[in-house]
């Protein structure tokens, strides 16, 4: 663990969701908490890098819980807004742990002078997403900061679900890697906005955010295939590369994916090339990555596609145990092999 | 319900925790959520104004959960800092519902350029409070915003506890009102800082924040007296007047308190007079207000005092049912009676 030096300050890259985020969290938090307080006994806590945490509740199984602060800019974008993102994002983190979401809490911090009709639109979008999901809103907070101290709005949501048996990410050798939809759609759209290029893409209807809750697609699969699902994660901050690298590193595995099979739409490829960003580093907000036993992989793919996720693909597999360090490899379209690195540095701030 | 007009903007007063906060939340949220989605079936949600929410979990009772965003400035103050406040504040909200806190999640949003050694101090204080309470930290989020968009740090914590039988605030006629310590200590200290007057008070050692977790003082009382505790709340934003007014209004009660018996230390009285602020509107962060059956009130007071809360006092009672609207009255020190209004307007921003 890298010790942070005296006099250092927080960088934008510390918030990118990749190795720099792990570094600062290790330094200020994880390394300072004694082992027994890193989880509730029998559950999952900060000792395991996953989308959420679990608390055992006897015969009912586990409470699954996840919290995230949403700071995306722009607040409104094709396909959604910060309200939909704040609902779907935390719901998906519970779903990825195998939890059935039942409730959400929201804490809103907004600047003085924020337009109330914009706030209403955001909340309507938040509420309608919860309504579709039948997730209750059971509590929250509301604070206002002077305009000198905050520009815009931050929504922190905590989603709570129940799981008979949570999915704790442990990909196994031989597993197939499935992604449930086209990747990087949300990330490339927001990147274009951040760079002032939205007219080129979003507004012309070529791109829109993929933000959506995944419960109805994934919970039936998780229920049916149970212990044959070895890992599930949504590739938000840091994209597919971050998810696969975390899996590979933590479990000392060689994961190999095939570039040709990665579902990326043509405008996404075009704009990531234009921006010089690797699409595997860019966020999706309505896609899952699964690591499932080979014996059921085709069947699961088939069911996902039949149930509406027609772009789902098998993109690779867990090849073998690593001798030294876990690593992610990719067979490139032109026949070679390259290492898929996790994102480093300040990529695209404020995508979620 | 007052409908917010087109073109209006969010005011600082919307975040004061009083009637204006209720107004805006009614307008943008509560009135838009269908009844069945205001709670998890069998639990408490946004349909009840209380410190937290509950979710039934079978034989074990209920999960109690509460979330709050901490935005206090200054970040460091005599008696604590934003880290201790973020831990104690959400823990206390779970305790006030009768829950035994078991876990917390924290979501940190910090500005680019924030000093890492300040962040470390804040996290050390956060962690040491959790350690004393034996509360596990099980998850969270970390985001960095550019300095143009955020000044400082916002910490949102969600605390989770378990309660066999939660305390849902329903004060009853005949109940005695107990406060467990000197009031307004946190609020007056932060007010002086906000006005640039900290040299007068805090730095001279006259005042310090009362921020502390209340679990060890209150959970044994709640366990012992069970259903004889009819309500429990911590008077944070909006102070004692907000808690009592909410109780009176929601339950259509006349609550009467006695000015002479309200525990306020001399420097607190002096500085609130100087500032022209009613101390009953100012926050405490380590005090509870209880509404308990008269038959056990003296005994409870005695136990609180013996266990270290030596300033605890009985300050009044639930007089009778209101014919029209619930109201809070106070016998003044000079023998009259006045209505205790809830705080309105922008009082003291950023106290929590």
TrEMBL record, chains A, B:
InterPro entries: HypE (IPR011854), PurM-like_C_dom (IPR010918), PurM-like_C_sf (IPR036676), PurM-like_N (IPR016188), PurM-like_N_sf (IPR036921). It comes from the Archaea. Residues 172-323 form the PurM-like C-terminal domain. Residues 50-163 form the PurM-like N-terminal domain. Coiled coil: none annotated. GO terms for biological process: protein maturation. Pfam families: AIRS, AIRS_C. Belongs to the HypE family. NCBIfam families: hypE. This is Hydrogenase expression/formation protein HypE. The lineage of its organism: Archaea, Thermoproteota, Thermoprotei, Fervidicoccales, Fervidicoccaceae.
């Amino acid at each position: 663990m890298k010790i942070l030096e005296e006099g250092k300050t927080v960088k934008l890259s510390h918030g990118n969701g990749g190795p720099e985020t792990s570094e600062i969290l290790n330094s200020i938090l994880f390394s300072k908490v004694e082992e027994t307080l890193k989880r509730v006994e029998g559950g999952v806590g900060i000792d395991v890098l996953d989308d959420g945490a679990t608390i055992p509740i006897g015969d009912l199984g586990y409470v699954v819980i996840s919290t995230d602060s949403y700071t995306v800019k722009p607040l409104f974008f094709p396909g959604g807004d910060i309200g939909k993102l704040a609902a779907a994002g935390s719901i998906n983190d519970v779903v990825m742990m195998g939890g059935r979401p039942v409730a959400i809490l929201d804490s809103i911090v907004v600047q003085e002078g924020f337009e109330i009709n914009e706030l209403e639109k955001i909340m309507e979008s938040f509420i309608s997403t919860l309504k579709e999901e039948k997730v209750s809103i059971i509590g929250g907070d509301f604070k206002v900061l002077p305009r000198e101290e905050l520009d815009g709005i931050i929504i922190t949501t905590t989603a709570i679900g129940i799981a008979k048996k949570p999915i704790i990410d442990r990909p196994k050798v031989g597993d197939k890697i499935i992604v449930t939809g086209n990747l990087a759609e949300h990330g490339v759209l927001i990147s274009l906005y951040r760079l002032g290029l939205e007219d080129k893409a979003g507004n012309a209807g070529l791109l829109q955010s993929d933000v959506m809750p995944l419960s109805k697609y994934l919970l039936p699969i998780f229920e049916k295939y149970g212990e044959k699902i070895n890992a599930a994660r949504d590739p938000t901050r840091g994209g597919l590369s971050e998810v696969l690298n975390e899996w590979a590193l933590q479990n000392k595995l060689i994961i190999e994916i095939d570039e040709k099979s990665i579902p990326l739409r043509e405008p996404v490829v075009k704009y990531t090339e234009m921006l010089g960003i690797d699409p595997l580093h860019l966020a999706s907000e309505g896609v899952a990555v699964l690591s499932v036993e080979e014996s059921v992989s085709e069947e699961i793919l088939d069911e996902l596609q039949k149930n509406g996720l027609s772009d789902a693909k098998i993109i690779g597999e867990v090849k073998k145990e690593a001798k030294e360090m876990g690593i992610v490899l990719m067979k490139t379209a032109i026949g070679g092999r390259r290492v898929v690195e996790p994102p480093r540095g300040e990529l695209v701030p404020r995508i979620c």
